[in-house]
Amino acid sequence: MSAEAWEPVQRVRTYEQVMSQIEDRILDGRLKAGDKLPSERDLSALLGVSRPSLRESLRVLEALGIVDIRPGGGAEGGAVLVGEPGSGFVNLLKLQLALGQFDQNEVLETRIALETWCCEEAAARASEEDHHELGLILDAMDDPDISTAEFNRLDAAFHVRIAESTGNTLSSHLMGSLRTAINRQMIEAYARLEDWKKTATVVRSEHRHILDSIRRGDANESRRAVGDHIRSFYNIGNIEGLNHPH
């Protein structure tokens, strides 16, 4: 047999094997949201691993937002598979952005792709209640004494609320996660401006135009308006990486 047919043996840590078994059961449907895992004692015996190794794997899954570890040994305690999106993805994305694993061009392109789709869908699907709540956010942004942090919080809320109005839960979660992950960069971009309130006036105007297009059901204009809005801010805010070549 030739040497090329051989592959190096991979050393897999015990906790990774435990995680792999739990993941396999989630992926093939044997475990689903809301299911409770066996007790720590029973699960460690079933898997043939030590309880410390089992705890380590469960802590990783908890950090990823896959399981919720509840205190106590009774019916209310133990590890339960989470049914709602949690903070795991947000925290992971935030750290990856901070480490430079994705550059700002990639963030910009992703935002434009996601938000243009969201605005186009919102123009077709958003309800009167959606329009009203989006308007309330913009009204709050008009406060003349607003701080940069609060302005940015409401800015993010506006974009996330548009995503929510599409009725697509995954899109709205991705939008919320992305905006949370880039929150620091957005605040720093405002801090670099000589007159952030002047820029805020432009942002307010563009937001009003986006909302007006959504209210009128003009999918093409809402799509164009949000794309121009995002590009404009990245240029004005001189967000690092925007002009780097691909």
Mean pLDDT: 87
Helical amount: 55-70%
Can you tell me the CATH superfamily of the largest domain? Answer: GntR ligand-binding domain-like
Measured distance between first and last alpha carbons: 45 Å
Strand elements, count: 2
Secondary-structure arrangement, i.e. CATH architecture of the largest domain: Up-down Bundle
Strand order of the largest sheet: 1-2
The biggest sheet amounts to: 2 strands, antiparallel
In short:
It is built from eleven helices and two strands. The protein is mainly α. A two-stranded antiparallel sheet has the order 1-2.
List the helices and strands and how they pair.
Blueprint: H1 14-27, H2 40-47, H3 51-63, E1 67-70, E2 78-81, H4 88-98, H5 104-125, H6 128-141, H7 148-164, H8 169-181, H9 183-191, H10 196-215, H11 219-236
Antiparallel strand pairs: 1-2
